Amino acid sequence: MKTRFRRLFIRLASVFILVSLLLGPAQAQEVELPLLPADPGHLEYIYQRINQTRASVGLPPYNIHPALNAAAQDQAEWLARTGRRSHFRPDGSRPSTRAAAAGYISPFWCCGENYYLSIDATPELASDFWNWSASHVVNVVHPDFTDIGLGMSSNGTRISYVTLFGQTGEQSVAEAVAMDIVVTLPEQTETNANAPAATYTVQAGDTLNAIAARQGVTLAALLLANDISDANLIYAGQVITIPPR
Q: Which of 84, 129, 156, 171 sits most deeply, having the most CB atoms within 10 A of its CB?
């Protein structure tokens, strides 16, 4: 009897230990570390480095925009919290939608986003990486972008830096109408007015900014002619109207 009880006790203890080992790591993963506040000195360093790079190619400094700051900080916190490396989140949000949600409304192309995430991230490493990477420095020295937002976050293990770039300019027609502002469009010449509208079929990899440059029209005119509010929302196969030059 004692032997049978001892064996039963050993089996139950073994099962308990096994269950504890299986559940332990899962429970540890569910613990969310608190996020540390951004270091203003680090963000100032990145801002100055970016503007130095722009000055080296003859471009003006970026204007810091509070809405882009909020969107960049939100993305930095998401990166640090989840450890995921992506501009697109599972909920479908992307740089342009996060900027719009934070209050950044522009009739132009929005937005370019750079991020850097690692366990040893520093403002120097982030700035160097963005300057050395061809796909990232294009945002740093983009001739059309005028505004920037900066974010930084850490959960004590991972550190993230995010910069978000946007373009402002003349007020969009939709905004002007909403505010009862009279919008006067440039008069067309007789030749342009009577010319048939040209069209272009969007190809994979196209951007409205690049299409406008190739067609010799402004991005604002292209957006207006096609009633497009977000320059990022185009797709391969879409037929767009090219306004008269």
A: 129
Q: What is the signed CA dihedral for 140, 210, 107, 197, rounded to 10 degrees?
A: 170
Is residue 126 within 8 A of residue 116, CB to CB? The reply is yes
- Rounded to an integer, the average pLDDT of 211-217 is 79
Cα–Cα distance measured from residue 153 to residue 98, given in angstroms and rounded to the nearest whole number: 17
Cβ neighbours of 38 (radius 10 Å): 20
Residues 6+ apart with CB under 8 A from 125: 116, 118
The pLDDT of 102-129, averaged and rounded, is: 91
CA dist., res. 67 & res. 101, Å (int): 9
pLDDT tens, position by position, 158-186: 999 999 999 985 433 333 333 333 333 33
**Residues whose CB falls within 8 Å of the CB of residue 77, separated by 6 or more in sequence, listed in order:** 35, 151, 153, 160
Q: Coil, helix or strand for 69?
A: helix
Continuous segment of H or E residues that includes residue 50: helix 40-56
For helices 123-132 and 40-56, angle between their N-to-C axes, nearest 10 degrees: 30
* Dist. CA 83–CA 166, nearest whole Å: 25
Interatomic CA distance for residues 118 and 9, integer angstroms: 47
